[in-house]
Amino acid sequence: MNDGIIDGGIAGDRPRLDPATFIKANLRLEPVPAIPEIRLYSAHPGSGLRRLVEADEVEQAEGNEADAPEPQPPYWAYVWAGGSVLARYIIDRPQTVAGRRVLDLGAGSGLVGIAAAKAGASAVIAAEIDRNGVAALGLNAAANGVTIMVIGEDITTGPPPVVDLVLAGDVFYGREVTLRVTPFLDRCLAAGIDVLVGDPRRTDLPLSRLRLLAEYQVPDFGDAKGAASKPSGVFSFEPEDR
């Protein structure tokens, strides 16, 4: 089976893993639980995802790329509740995105951006810092017949792109990332950009800044097999002095 290894190109070079080739060869393209309208390349017990992360670590060490971002865990290969609940909300309420320019922040697999594109967004930008995630995002968009522009870098340190709506699924999964993302979302609000958040109420979710719009029962990554799904929310991110 083709496991995604391609030649280094020069005799003696270490063979490297091409992310897109690896993903197509080792992950399964299957419907998303709770959002069967969308199919994603998803991890399974035999997919060997650790090889992709290890390949990134080796390439970074051999290239001595001091300024390169640290290899990321393969979050993009799994469906998370925050993205699922946002995608379900958008598919059920296409008027949320129809005719609007949309940013999928921390896009991962691209689930939320794909939902927006299917629901009639005029343009979709996906921001994702993991190069393997960027590869998966492109494959997932093509598999669902939509076009998404990908930004493969951290955009939270600068001004927001020219969009009408930011969709932020599961971006508050830790204290450090919350402290980085919140000022960016405030800059979005100041620029007149609406912000919707999808989250299963993780510990660092800034609930005081959120207004609940809808709830859905969707599975979350890490849930035990057969476990009952907990309600996850779609929220409007509100100004601090509201």
Q: Can you give me a brief rundown of this structure?
A:
This protein has helices spanning 19-26, 50-63, 81-92, 111-118, 131-143, 175-190; strands spanning 5-6, 16-17, 28-32, 35-42, 101-105, 123-127, 149-151, 165-169, 194-199, 210-217, 231-237. It has 242 residues and is of the alpha/beta class. The chain folds into 2 domains: 5-75, no CATH class; 78-237, Rossmann fold, CATH 3.40.50.150.
Keywords:
242 residues, alpha/beta, Rossmann fold, seven-stranded mixed β-sheet, two-stranded antiparallel ribbon, 6 helices, 11 strands, 29% helix, 23% strand, SAM-dependent_MTases_sf, Methyltransferase
Question: What would your notes on this structure say?
Answer:
The protein has a seven-stranded mixed sheet with strand order 7-6-5-8-9-11-10, with helices on both faces. A two-stranded antiparallel sheet has the order 1-2. The protein has a two-stranded antiparallel ribbon with strand order 3-4. It is of the alpha/beta class and 242 residues long. The longest helix is centred in the last third of the chain and has 16 residues, at 175-190. The chain has two domains: 5-75, no CATH class; 78-237, Vaccinia Virus protein VP39 (Rossmann fold, 3-Layer(aba) Sandwich). It has helices at residues 19-26, 50-63, 81-92, 111-118, 131-143, 175-190; strands at 5-6, 16-17, 28-32, 35-42, 101-105, 123-127, 149-151, 165-169, 194-199, 210-217, 231-237. The chain contains six helices and eleven strands. Helix 4 (111-118) links the parallel strand 5 (101-105) and strand 6. 42% of the residues are buried. InterPro entries: Methyltransf_16, Ribosomal_L11_MeTrfase_PrmA, SAM-dependent_MTases_sf.
